[in-house]
Amino acid sequence: MQLKRMLSFRIGRRRRRGEEENAEKNAPLAHESKAAETQPLHKPTWRCFSYEEIRKATNGFRQDNLVGRGGFAEVYKGVLEDGQAIAVKRLKSASSEEQKEKDFLTELGTVGHVRHPNVSSLLGCCIDRDLHLVFEFFSRGSVSSNLHDESSPPMAWKLRYGVALGTARGLHYLHKECPRRIIHRDIKASNILLTTNFEPQISDFGLAKWLPSEWTHRAVAPIEGTFGCLAPEYFMHGIVHDKTDVFAFGVFLLEIISGRKPVDGSHKSLISWAKPYLNDGTMKILVDARLGDQYDHEQLRKLTFAASLCIKATPACRPSMTEVLGIIEGNMTMQDEWKMPKEDEEEEEFWGFDDLDEDEDDECDTPSLLSSSSSTGSSQ
Question: Has 186 been annotated as catalytic?
């Protein structure tokens, strides 16, 4: 099989690469982030599983073990002989067998070198009888399942803030610190899994794209993703860059804050509902009503301010994930004016961090500025 030969070649080539070559290949990225200086392109730690191993682990891919199904894959939970809980992603038929193999190798190559506490790591793969990717299984499920489970108490604010912070760190890593810059393209609550300690894990790299450091963007087709989370430039023109993920992360923040889904039963988007309150700087009405007053007001200010910037219609008006992380962590101050392109100054009303009011619908007359030691994000 051509895929087996290709995969064997890739694995052999990866194993032959020494640390010196990896460090040399990573050297050009050293100036982009401090982490890049200390995290060379490591040899892969994942391995090839036999079909018998994953078949036995998943009880023969029984329906009882099915935990997720999408347009291109099914995910089964299982347990290896050593007790390791795993999630096996089995690719479904694409437009052709060749395209299916291409998608498999693309995702394998993308997620295979990722190393971060807030990004799901690949354990291995299996190419016997079908195409499978093996990941660690997280029994707490996704942020979406925890946030929208009406049979359980509402997700506590402390957990929500921790999830927002951890996800921001993971996404910042993919954009700025990963040896090869990755655009996820499908950031949403159902793709953020939770460990037993509620540490978020960015998962499902089926739509992810590499973005070489010298590229500002790339055009993709067909346009795929989740309605309600897609940036305007992406669903209208197929343009993908880091700000595509920033937009989706803004929707994710609004979902965490409000407990509402990106699109509700009446097909109204979360952004359409939230924007009037974001524009006049009110926050209290945005908070999940189930929480009552059980939330940290200062943390709410940070998340709401970050969300308002992330969902700007124009990519140049959105911050980078470095800046978003700075806002959430509290390392940035709003001292000056967030400068938007002239064509958007009248289109989008902007409120400042200090203008937020939980009790009154105050008008924002003067926008504030986001300043920090890092440079303002662009559409790069």
Answer: yes
pTM of the predicted model, to two decimals?
Answer: 0.78
The domain locations on the chain are: 2-136, 143-371
In this structure, the dihedral spanned by the alpha carbons of residues 189, 191, 192 and 193, taken in order and rounded to 10 degrees, is 120
Give dist(CA 270, CA 281) in Å, integer: 16
Amino acid making up residue 33: S
Taken in order 99, 105, 109, 111, the sign of the CA dihedral is positive
Is 89 annotated to bind a ligand? Reply is: yes
Instruction: Report the distance separating Cα 67 and Cα 243, nearest Å.
Output: 31
Q: List pLDDT tens digits, range 215-270.
A: 666 667 666 767 778 888 887 878 888 999 999 999 999 999 999 999 987 768 99
> Domain 2-136 has what CATH class?
alpha beta
The answer to whether 338 and 367 have CB atoms below 8 angstroms apart is yes
Give the active site residue among 82, 103, 130, 186.
186
CATH classification code of 143-371: 1.10.510.10
pLDDT in tens, 204-217: 998 888 776 656 66
Q: CA separation (Å) from 162 to 138, 224, 344?
A: 17, 29, 33
